[in-house]
Amino acid sequence: MDIDDKIKRAAEWIKNSRHTTVFTGAGISVESGIPPFRGKGGIWNKYDPNLLELRFFRAHPEKSWSIIKEIIYDFFGQAEPNDAHKGIAELEKMGYVKAVITQNVDHLHQDAGSKTVYEFHGTSRTLSCMICGSQYDARRISYQVMPPRCSGCMGILKPDFIFFGEGIPKEASMLSFYEAQIADLFLVIGTTGEVMPACQVPLQAKDNGARIIEINLEPSNFTPWVTDIFLQGKATEIMNRLVEEVKENK
Ligand code: APR
After folding, report:
1. Is 38 close to ligand 1, i.e. is its CB under 6 Å away?
2. CATH classification of 1-34+81-121+168-250 is 3.40.50.150, yes or no?
3. What is the pLDDT of residues 79-98, one digit of tens each?
């Protein structure tokens, strides 16, 4: 079956599904200028992920903050949602997509207009003081003096995304695995499917009888044995065609 037939079939599945859930990874934001973690241009090819390990951050906050500033806050707020984020928001508005589960911390789904978004790895949009817990809007912090500190108690601020070795936000985890129970269709976009426990969400959906449509530049861990329709290509291009196809025979 060629890509055109696959897109037609995927659009049929979306139109006939009772409950479609979207599951995204870093690949969906690459065309917004945010590098992925693995593969070509991946962040972990350049930086040591141990710098973002929770114990390391607690022991050497200034070292951790040097990479956090470079990979996130140096170009913070410059990334815009792309056609893939917007296409998902449009499918939600049309009543097809019921929720987005994202591993990304860039807030681009919300910026594109998606209303129901579960941030499985937290968000970079806010930071919390490690001593008093005060929360700050990331857009209102100066990153000139490192590490950034709480204006109330001078405690070091930690971004509200999860570090390696840190627990998944409880509500996002509970709601995401609930989606895996009730969805009859998962649209998995731009993820290697390598990181636990996030990668278990599409697996559980599959075990519960959901069908899986995957969009990715390359095959992922899901492709050989979880994915039912693999749409190989850039997320923006594939999503544009998919949304057009859904609209055409609405
Ligand atoms: N369109 C579609 N897919 C793309 C594109 C694109 N333009 N560019 C890259 N990809 C795909 C890659 O083929 C790869 O499968 O996106 C995926 C990116 O993989 P990762 O960088 O591993 O991202 P992700 O799977 O989200 O990583 C999961 O790892 O380091 C942790 O917390 C971090 O949330 C992240 C988690």
Report:
1. yes
2. no
3. 999 999 999 999 999 999 99
